[in-house]
Amino acid sequence: xxxxxxxxxxxxxxxxxxxxxxxxxxxxxxxxAKELINIxxxxxxxxxxxxxxxxxDHAARIIRENGRIMVRPVLERGDRAIKxxxxxxxxxxxxx
Length: 96
Known about the structure:
With 96 residues, the protein is mainly alpha-helical. α1 (19-28) packs across α3. The two termini are 19 Å apart. It has one domain (19-94): Glutaredoxin (3-Layer(aba) Sandwich), CATH 3.40.30.10. It is built from four helices and two strands.
């Protein structure tokens, strides 16, 4: 059985997060901005940086400049958020 849920999709390439939004999202996920970086992404690898070379503010700037670097998908609901996709976790998150 499929359930319908209203949502708003945001293309981070066409509509990048501002640095403040990156920090706020990280807080909702109980992570640092640096932990939102997908270190396996080609975009991040092309920068030639290691995570140890950047701080949270630099991470937020990098994500603002190239949304492909951020882990995704991310689902926000109120003051909480989850990342990645696992159907059972999404179902539980949406039923709160």
